[in-house]
Amino acid sequence: MAANVDPSELAKFEALASRWWDRDSEFKPLHDLNPIRMNYIDQQINVAGLNVLDIGCGGGILSETLAKRGGNVLGIDMTDAPLKVAQLHALESGITNLQYKQITAEDLAVERAGQFDVITCMEMLEHVPDPLSVIKAISTLLKPGGTAIFSTINRNPKAWVMAIVGAEYVLNLVPKGTHEYKKLLKPSELANGARQAQLQVKGFKGTSYNPITKDFKLTEDVSVNYMMTTQKPSN
């Protein structure tokens, strides 16, 4: 069975790996957005002492924050260079409750079914050929009662203007070509995928960016960037 990866997507992030922890690089938006995402995660669940999986971890920005919150964290990704950057940064930071592995969610689900209390999957589903396959793997990986939190980009004209044209070509927030419109996911599609994977949808939250103040914030508007919390039934 072919791995659920897109080589062209992997190549984009491999090429930028060395700049992952440079806050003034192409990854500045990820650094700026990370506290907002973590605040949302904190509102959903306290990860301290829990087994946490960060899918599509890249260079480890969110993974490290989850570990600093006290979670026992495994970050997984299919890119080699960003994972090496993540491992080195964790070593330099002295973080011991964090590991990384180059593996797909689907393959990890075969190895470690039902072993994670919390799973995060941030800005990853729009970069794989089969998002539903990842969601099903997440359901398999979660313990009964476990929480999975997703973030992605809506698919509509407003999202195209703001997240692709605006962010990539006008404001240069992220490298040009980072996102493909046809791969974006509507909240209804993500929710339906979660339900098909036997996950209960608990709620949505939007994130917005102010180009004047250059700040991100949580909002009720899910028309562009949004997050979704789900839970695996306890029985």
TrEMBL record:
Cite the Pfam families for this sequence.
Methyltransf_23 (PF13489)
Q: Which GO terms describe its molecular function?
A: 2-polyprenyl-6-hydroxyphenol methylase activity; 3-demethylubiquinol 3-O-methyltransferase activity
Top EC category: transferase
TM stretches of this protein: none
The EC number(s) attached to this protein equal 2.1.1.222, 2.1.1.64
User: What SUPFAM superfamilies does the database record attribute to this sequence?
Assistant: S-adenosyl-L-methionine-dependent methyltransferases
Q: Which GO terms describe its biological process?
A: methylation
Q: Tell me where on the tree of life, at the top rank, the source sits.
A: Bacteria
Write the record's keywords in alphabetical order, separated by commas. Methyltransferase, S-adenosyl-L-methionine, Transferase, Ubiquinone biosynthesis
* Catalytic reactions on record: a 3-demethylubiquinol + S-adenosyl-L-methionine = a ubiquinol + S-adenosyl-L-homocysteine + H(+); a 3-(all-trans-polyprenyl)benzene-1,2-diol + S-adenosyl-L-methionine = a 2-methoxy-6-(all-trans-polyprenyl)phenol + S-adenosyl-L-homocysteine + H(+)
Tell me which NCBIfam families the record gives: UbiG
> What does the sequence similarity comment in the record state about its family?
Belongs to the methyltransferase superfamily. UbiG/COQ3 family.
Function as written in the Swiss-Prot or TrEMBL entry: O-methyltransferase that catalyzes the 2 O-methylation steps in the ubiquinone biosynthetic pathway.
What is the protein name stated in its UniProt record?
Ubiquinone biosynthesis O-methyltransferase
What is the source species? Reinekea marina
